[in-house]
Amino acid sequence: MKHGDETRVTVRDVAARTGLSIATISRVLNGRANVAAHTRERVLAAMGELGQKAPRRRGERATGIYVRCPYVLTDYFGLIVSAVAEALEPHGLQVILNAGVAAQREHVLTTLTGRRDVTGAVLILPPEPGAELARLRDRGFPFVVLDPRTPPPRNLAAVSAAHFAGARQLTAHLVELGHRRIGIIGGPRDWLASENRFAGYLSPLADARVLPAPELIRFVAEPTTELGYRAAVELLDLPDRPTALVAFNDKMAIGALRAAAERGLRVPDDLSVAGFDDIELGQACRPMLTTVRQPLEEMGRMAVHLLLRMLGGHRLDALHLELATELVVRESTGLAKA
């Protein structure tokens, strides 16, 4: 029998593989006592050979949690996935990982409800539209979205960092240092985190009665070091360049450091640069990067906590949790030149 793109194996198939009757296979699956030990082992061995597509024994609980992270598992995503796996392990649950950029082209959500090895899912920055997530929710499949890429539908469990608050705190730090002409290198325009951080960047400038100059704002298609570098080049080559740059993440900020160095600008004496995330690379560069720390491991653990409550039949009091960020001031930001 077909289910989605997979062929499901029936009791009849197990019987054909073992040479036993369908009635005998059914007695094994139903846990009946009137089956010889060697016969039971023969059936279970055949089921093991058939893998996840074989029929499940009565009372057998699925232990797989589908973790979808369709991106390269760098220090950012790698930390989140590791935290999820470590939080699941004490509960006897195993990670079934779907990762890598190529996974973005896979249409996997529609198959999850039919998988016998999967009991729930953690979806990390899912590229699927909200309508598709809502359909999965409406089918009664338990899952949690970790770091939503787009605004999550109502009644959908989600965990993220406080992007707006973190970005606001970062720009307020620069404003306190006397910076008013601040260049913003935002992330992808269609990412919820990018939208919230951009609003957070603008808020302290508004408080200081500074209107954002359109020529000081750039957005990138992907938050990479190279695209951060290119955006910084455009901003630093302006006739009236910014005195500070804030980047969507640390990798882009490191690209901005490279652009500054190529132009003979000293950081932070001539230019302040700040990032977001607080990945290890930001402490390995010189100067060390001022940034906003995202609670990545805590986010992973909280996503698992919510999922476990859902699997236990508990109602969630809060459906979208934002975990606090922290401003980390290091060497890359300083007083604005008069």
UniProtKB/TrEMBL annotation:
InterPro entries: HTH_LacI, LacI/GalR-like_sensor, Lambda_DNA-bd_dom_sf, Peripla_BP_I
UniProt entry keywords in alphabetical sequence: DNA-binding, Transcription, Transcription regulation
Any Pfam family matching the protein: LacI
Transmembrane domains' residue ranges: none
Domain of life: Bacteria
Domain HTH lacI-type: 9-51
Gene3D superfamilies: 3.40.50.2300, lambda repressor-like DNA-binding domains
SUPFAM superfamilies xref list: lambda repressor-like DNA-binding domains (SSF47413), Periplasmic binding protein-like I (SSF53822)
Protein name: LacI family transcriptional regulator
Organism, as annotated: Actinoplanes italicus
Lineage, opening ranks: Bacteria, Bacillati, Actinomycetota, Actinomycetes, Micromonosporales
